[in-house]
Specification:
Number of strands: 9
Helix content: 10-25%
Radius of gyration: 15 Å
Strand content: 25-35%
Structural class: alpha+beta
Shape: globular
Low-confidence stretches: none
Length: 136
């Protein structure tokens, strides 16, 4: 499960989240109803047409060695396409089955510095997630 400082971060941001442990087949956190930039993304609607989407769920896998090990890449649900082109965002074209559902894999890494154990946390990586969704 998440360290207390990560739970406090998510609660402080008033983000709804669910933790998953190894007994559920995956150590991860899902942040629910993450607001997306207005007009940026579409998703395939029930009608088979692309429809605007205002929020998504974000899944982040938590490595066994965390917080000593870095968080790396994230997953979105529903699948997001860029509204202006109806194409996949760069490095977000793969699908992975997690928690019995298909998730869109977003390959995103902390490139600005190396992971700093006991300094970096979910808050550090969350900044990267938000930036990736804004700049896609």
């Amino acid at each position: 499960m998440l360290p207390e400082f990560d739970r406090e971060f998510l609660e402080g941001k008033e983000l709804a989240f669910t933790e998953y442990g190894p007994d559920q087949g995956l150590r991860a956190v899902v942040v629910h109803n993450v607001a997306l930039p207005e007009g940026k993304f579409v998703t395939m609607g029930a009608s088979g047409q692309h429809e605007p989407v205002a929020s998504c769920d974000v899944l982040i896998k938590i490595p066994d060695q965390y917080p000593d090990a870095t968080l790396d890449s994230f997953y979105a649900r529903p699948f997001l396409k860029l509204a202006n082109s109806q194409s996949d965002p760069q490095n977000a074209t793969a699908t992975e089955q997690l928690l019995n559902q298909p998730w869109q894999f977003w390959s995103r890494h902390l490139n600005t510095h190396r992971w700093r154990p006991n300094i970096d946390s979910l808050a550090t990586y969350w900044d990267l997630v938000r930036q990736a969704l804004r700049s896609a």
